[in-house]
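Z., the sequence and structure:
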Amino acid sequence: MKKLFFIGAMIAVFTTSCSTETVNEDLTLTDQVQFEVTSKSILTAGTATGSGSAEICSVTYIMAGQHTIAGKLFILADADNLYITYRTISNWIIEETHMFIGNREDIPVNGGGNPRIGHFPYSAVHYNNTNEVVYTIPKNAVPDCFTLAAHSVVSKLDANGNRVVTETAWTDGDAIGGASWAMATDYCVSGCPTSPDNGPVRRR
């Protein structure tokens, strides 16, 4: 199984109308695949901002505690990269993200078939009331048809900014297996963003 090596550091950038923190870790897998994680705390609602030139290819709900919609996961693409964008709503913030993208049979699971999120190849911890996290991944680093399992830990804030509930969250999809409610979805990225169907194609 691929192991993640951190070779950079987290850089806190600035606070104006929005607070932005760039986890510019240039995280490197053993096969030299590099990716970037960027997280933001945005005071006003809006659309995903994965890249100025990228187009939204697919949108899926982020489900907190299995039954509550806490936000959406956007897949964006341009000519070179995929931008997997977590975006929460309604005072939900993102504490952690863990993501697997690749062949379904390679999802790390334990003996009971439950996913081992600590072994997912892409992960980060987020601070400062983050409500948008973007993973930038080269298109050539993933198979054309791939499985995406996007896990997160999310919290809801009250009017005073206090955490009132913290939940595990998965993006809506089909069951991975085991005794947990973990979910994943299969996609094919061919043609995105130029396909008439505005792919990737969800295969559920």
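Residues 46 and 87 are 9 Å apart (CA to CA). The first strand starts at residue 11 and ends at 15.

Let me know what you think.
H.
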